[in-house]
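Schema walkthrough. Field components (list of strings):
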Amino acid sequence: MSDFTSDAWGLYVALLTLISIAACAVLLFVLGRMRVKKPAPGQGIETTGHVWDGDLAEYNNPLPRWWMWLFYATIVFALVYLALYPGLGKLSGAFGWTSSGAYASEVHDFDAKIQPLYAKYLAMDPTAVAADPEARAMGERLFLNYCSQCHGSDAGGSKGFPNLRDGDWLYGGEPQMIKTSISGGRNGIMPPFGAALSGENVRDLVQYVRSLSGLPSDNLRAQLGKPLFSQNCAACHGPDGKGNQQIGAPNLTDRIWLYGSTEAAITETISKGRGDASGVTRMPAHKDLLDDGKIQMLTAYVWGLSNVR
Amino acid sequence: MNAPVILEDRETRPTAVISAAARARRVIPIQPTSEEVALYEIRKTIHPRAVHGWFAGWRWTLVFLTQAVFYGVPWLTWNGRQAVLFDLGARKFYLFGGVFWPQDVIYLSVLLIISALSLFLFTAIAGRLWCGYACPQTVYTEIFMWIERKIEGDRLARVRLDAAPLTLDKFVIKALKHTAWFAVALWTGYTFVGYFTPIRDLGVAAITWQLGPWELFWILFYGIATYGNAGWLREQVCKYMCPYARFQSVMFDKDTLVITYDRARGEPRGGRSKAVDPRAQGLGDCVDCNICVQVCPTGIDIRKGLQYECIGCAACIDGCDQVMDKMGYPKGLIRYTTENALAQGLTPRAMWKRVFRLRTLLYGAGLMVITGVAAASLAMRNPLKVDIIRDRGALARETIPGQIENVYRLQVMNTEERARSYTISAAGLPGLALAGLEQPIELTAESTKLFALRLQAPLEPPGGVAPAAGPHKIELTVQAVDDDKVVRHEQSTFIIPR
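Field assembly_structure (string):
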């Protein structure tokens, strides 16, 4: 690839551009000076004198002189443009214009314009922001832009992506906790127990876990699973299975299932764990992507989903 | 009037007045010989002579009609708003009772197709009718030439004025003309912008010096363009800039009516007294008065045949007919006729019959079909627009055991200028129902609303067949509460997971 990023290409492009412009100027000058024979009246038709294929001629219908000056003006314009803007090889031009700079400046201008609106909501408590219909509409638009890809347009979530409207929270539903989740992201860990536990043990555990939320379960196996739960799971999910919002361990007693409640799904969760290749379930951090104002609007909107009606 | 009309100059373009400098350089050979010419020429100012007559009357009629519409329409009101307003900021076009949204852009394409077909049809029938009578370039040039004539006088006075040295008188006359031109041009620019921003508010803003930068720019841009095109460039726009002028010739055929000099009747041309019989002197009907050249706004001699510069304004017909009248000859030495009519000596009746030929009938039929379809479609236009998009992130989810939920984004657009409420329903799967939406939904006038729509279907519907895993076609219906006809049915899919 280094062949294609060589500085020589910039020089090549610059030379080609300048030669082309010079060639245009020469062509214009020559044509401006050129004279063609005008036949006497009745002695044929006035042509430019060019003949192709032996008999194809071109009528001379002269353009007005000011048109030629326009052509010269385009040459002047091109040279001025190339001096001011990037275009001549690697030269950046007198204005130092770049497309990314133009974009950044537009974003900056827009942010400055929208700032007073965000400032108003930043000064308010998120619970008060959530009650404001205008803020709610803004929050919904932001949510559709930044959050709906995983959590769904209705914030109802899907397998592996929490439902945000059911009042059940992995990391806490207070506005401050929601804000922390959005800006800093969350990394949850459900390690695999397939190696540590035998197949029988896993089957017993599954039945116990199902019994916690009152799902139909095998009573005997559930009894056998209970000590296994205390040994292996209670550290995170708590001795009673009600979870721990400090580390995002789900409450297993509330019939809300992030990865499914079927025996097969729970078996898979226990034996293989949940998460990406590094064993982590991620909610990405947004503090570099979104400014404080947007995070405030989203916090209020998400909090409002299960608290404002 | 029996004296031969004064001849001015017998150049290729006799109306041309050459500037003093150019005249000095010019070599006028005693004997015709080959002359050297450049590929670029200094533009020769054309001073068209005023002309009256049947066709000039038509042109003025069209000037009044088109300009009454152009200058007048923005001032009309309809239901308390400007009747015709193209609100680019809000992306809504108001045309009397109708409001057009970006989704209606098809009507713009249809309008362009209708315009193109009309142009083909009229050109096939009678050449550059558009150019000669209705094109803004012609219309504004006509208006500007009228102002020029009122201030500077007719052709001869203008030729003299332009050749005269600059005196205070000349300066005053010229200043008066340009001021008048500029006033018309600015009003034109103001009217033009009045189609895009409410014209009354624009007027108030203009008077109080509170025009926005873009409003000011476009008023000046359109105004200066009008001033430059109609005042200065004139025929050059048609000759050098207009693409239509160049491709119209492909729409001509041998039965197209074009403005033609009847060479057989007119030649040999020459001056003569009204008293003598031209035939006895071996002359044709053309008295070589050059009136046809003097009235021509593009400065050509129609007697040389059809030329690309001819915009088909028929000024030469009006001019020639008056001379023929004075000479006591029949009118129509220059007239609308066809190549075939001249070559085959067709009677006018036979010539007019050929207006109805395959080409024009096809253009006409195409025009009628597309106009009819567009009119029907406009009449039946549904003011309700609906878009439905499945959520892409999640295919399906199980809410409570046995209940499958799919999520959609539903956009409902109420394009009418009144509030409406709608009910939404879904069909296509047993037990399919909407969840968590308060019905009916309310939309204010000209508003759009986006819903996260949740549809639920049971895996085992009571008394029904369990749907197979995979995608199922469903239909969503949005129905106005107070009008059965305002309804939309949109297709989508509902996915039952494996």
